[in-house]
Amino acid sequence: MNIEKLLKGDDICACGMVHKCPIDHVIIKENACDSLTELVAAYNNILLVADKTTYRVGGGTITEKLGVHLADTLVYQTEDVLVPNEAAIEELRSHVTDKTDLIIGIGSGVINDLCKHVSFTAGLPYYIVATAPSMDGYASKGAALILDGMKVTLNANVPKAIIADVNILKDAPIDMIRAGYGDIIGKYSCLNDWKLAHLVNGEYLCKSVMNATYDAVEETVKLAEGVAKREPAAVQALMEALVAVGILMAYVGNSRPASGSEHHLSHYFEIVGIVRGEEYLPHGVDVCCSAIETAKLREKLLAIVDISEYTYKFDKATYEANIRRIYGTLADEVLALQNKLGWYDTDRVSIYRDKWQEIRKLLASAPSSAEMLRLTEQVGLSYEGFKALYGDKKIADAHLYAKDLKDRYTVLWMYYDLFGTK
């Protein structure tokens, strides 16, 4: 992907929007951390943020590059997985002073989201030094957090600089490298969802952004063998694709180009895992395997012989009972979100009947579940491990109720409208 071209934006897009991405620097190459000395020259009170693992990976080198410009360092000491919740946010905020002029994070998803959120609320710029090509949120405007136990994405600023040293990235845990590949491959699912939302609900869609995202996905598919072998060129190209997708999200001001039904399933497994104290997989792994699940749902929808036989029937009592069974202590928040949206009061089946041939053509344009399985396995990801960990019941619940965590229309709503109320 041509990152420099994407950073310039597009003032005359055919969709009618002006696409901008206010990132000053994206440096993805070997020894990229060497650029920090020049990039931070104008700052005098930098706060460096990492966890124990990411500080061990890059903290010493980065501290040396920052020199006298470094004022404070926060290294999260949690022994478990760092969760971007209220406690983690407050700990980071406590290190921000009226003299802090730049926040630099060392890490990937969670560290990036924490720094993105706190820098935004504090009115400060931030840089991210990536330690793994594990997800596409480095360049996005959204900060994915867990507040009051719920997975939420809050608006924030993009980083002023993304520094990705290939020498560090290629040595990341292989599961994190595979997760980045999986996050990109999952775009086949979400892009189909975007087109579906445009057809069913008239949602805004930018063909230019969609096509550029497809390009990133197609280029990533070619990298599977090199990614699995940690080849520097393949890892660099994967990271470029992840950053490119983040920039494309910034173009439209939300995560629609990169997040759909497969992400909703992933968020469901994470949230339910946290609520129940159950294990869940890395985000990108869940996204990739969940894209196989959403492909299966499209195939089930395509198997409908006569759409005229279907009508929308909503049993509120049964629905609420299932939400309480699945989400436990978070059920009231989930119900409140859906009550606010009012989507269960809408009969979309009549829309499906009117547009069924167009819908069928669209659903059929996405890769099949067999093709998604092939793409998943060729980089070493285990769909069978995904199924074994979660089990049939949890996965079946996800098909019907993962959508309730978000305010975004995807194939999960169509599946529920046609099969969930039977």
Largest sheet: 6 strands, parallel
What best-fitting shape do the alpha-carbon axes yield? Answer: globular
Number of domains: 2
**In whole angstroms, how far apart are the ends?**
45 Å
The radius of gyration computed from the alpha-carbon positions, rounded to a whole number of angstroms, is: 21 Å
Q: Strands across the major sheet, in which order?
A: 1-8-5-4-2-3
Number of helices: 20
Low-confidence stretches: none
Helical content stands at: 40-55%
**Helix and strand element order:** HEHEHEHEHEEEEHHHHHHHHHHHHHHH
Mean pLDDT, to the nearest integer, reads 93
Structural class: alpha/beta
Beta content comes to 5-15%
Number of strands: 8
